[in-house]
Amino acid sequence: MQKIWVHIVLSLALSAGFLYGRAWAGNNGYFTTYNSEVERGEFELMFMTDLTSPSEFRQEEGFGDYLSHMIELEYGATDQWATEFMVEWFEDLHTVDAEFTGFRWENRYRLFKQQVPLNPMVYVEYEDLAPETRYKMEVSGWVRPPYEEGEEEPDRERILETRLVLSEDLGPINLAFNWINETDLANGHTPFGYSLGLMWMSHGEGTSRASENRSAMSGGAEVYSCPMHPEVSQTEPGSCPKCGMVLVAMGEGRWAMEDGCRCSLEMPGCGCSHCRGRGGKCPCAHSGMVGLGIELYGGLGDSKAFDLRPSRQEHYLGPILMYHLSSRWMSHAQLAIGLTKASDNVVRLNFGYEF
What we know:
By secondary structure, the protein is mainly beta.
């Protein structure tokens, strides 16, 4: 038992140390649900780990407690399209054996560049996974189908997952719904699932800190800085000594303090989309952000038997706590409570950074 807990602590410590000081996430902090947000030109690296206590059904099949992990790299290619690559593995806590189970390649495309009601998005993901894979990116189908399974389990599962993503922002609150299809490319068999999410974000701290930093720097006077060289700043209008450009008041343009942007004060040379004049949210505004949310997700049968039978399906209710420690570093946690006999209980932790 001592060996198991040492292994858990080392896994979490290494992930936190690897990511510390660099991150904030571009999404709303959900674990299974997606919203419609895409931020062009930004990379995001996430390390995700679950500690799972299996359901009675899985315990009967010989499952014990286990850790499952995923590493994800996402890139916002345009204002509407994001792509990401994921690898995953798990560790049995009784044997401390680890098994790499495969990879996923995901693409999300928002149908409208501008904000429209529900902001519809199309999600397509290719999965090449071992049948033993255990990370819950989504939940679909049956744990115990209400029909006889005649086919042998393949050596690999090659799945095309598609989702319809609908998402709406109501002030600081995001509401999101995902309809999930997971089609086996070998036989066309398709399990179905759903995910509902609600997230409240506190956005205010970045703005207040920005104002405090500006006041501290200038003694209450306006600060002017170079659009090309953010490290150049002064309390009077003028020209940049490096390039000759006219200095811009930090309360204007890309450094609008109303947006909480502190790049010129804390991140000289910041290359985010906001600072490159391409729109999007400034990462500085996320420093100190707190998010409180909840997800409800589960399976809805499959193309052989579409139905809602909780006694044979996984369904979860999971409160979420998210915190941005800095403009780039974030973490969030969830306790996914199994609502049915067929559901596990899961403690979920994510760490991430954006660059």
